[in-house]
Amino acid sequence: VFCGIALMLVSLLHACRQFPGCGNIVTFSQFLFIAVEGFIFEANFGRKRPAIPIRYYFIMVAMFFTVSVVNNYALNLNIAMPLHMIFRSGSLIASMALGIIILKKRYSVSKYTSIALVSLGIFTCTFMSAKQVASDSSLNEEDGLQVFLWWLLGIAALTFALLMSARMGIFQEMLYKQFGKHSKEALFYNHALPLPGFLLLAPNIYHHAVLFSQSELFQVPVIGLTLPIMWFYLLMNVITQY
């Protein structure tokens, strides 16, 4: 699992470093792969009825699709990849906050302490990233202010996605209590139902598909297959979703 996550992050980092706006094609590829795999092995080619009513999946899918698109778009708003990954680790904080507000939960002192330490780490990373953005754009005051405002918008987008993701988790927890836990089924529908929504992003996806095809050629070890290196990075990222 660790190697798979590491490979996924490395491939995503390489892709975003060369084409910062490629998040949509990466997300679409991940969704398509998981949907096809789930359609075959979980839904039995559409013959298996869902245990949870489909209307609840549409609500969950709306949240999931929004979170994925907003997280990807944040990379276009001067958000560095390390900050992006660290900020998303704050899901525990958001889940705890919404759990207290919505579910009226209470936690132990040790959990509050752990969350406080994680929050401090995220705040420190965000603060240092803000200083980096300010120093990189200090040559031109007007341009620097614009860059910093876009960065603030990126932080707002990540915060919104974090809270929406936590709300989706609570909604999913409530469904599991009512209908039983069906995690693989939820995984399939959460990735299959949003696929038509990518039609709204089709121009961007096609544009980056063309850019990927124009990248330098790379020979895959062992099998000897030659393909553009950006497609190789995307393939590695998608395979690790399994």
UniProtKB/TrEMBL annotation:
Residues 1-18 form the signal peptide. InterPro entries: SCL35B1-4/HUT1 (IPR013657). It is a multi-pass membrane protein. Keywords: Membrane, Signal, Sugar transport, Transmembrane, Transmembrane helix, Transport. It holds the Pfam family UAA. GO terms for molecular function: UDP-N-acetylglucosamine transmembrane transporter activity; UDP-xylose transmembrane transporter activity. Belongs to the nucleotide-sugar transporter family. SLC35B subfamily. One of its GO terms (cellular component) is endoplasmic reticulum membrane. The lineage of its organism: Eukaryota, Metazoa, Chordata, Craniata, Vertebrata. The chain crosses the membrane at residues 28-45, 57-75, 81-103, 115-135, 147-166, 187-206, 218-239. PANTHER family: NUCLEOTIDE SUGAR TRANSPORTER SLC35B4, SOLUTE CARRIER FAMILY 35 MEMBER B. It is found in: Endomembrane system. This is Solute carrier family 35 member B4. Its main location: membrane.
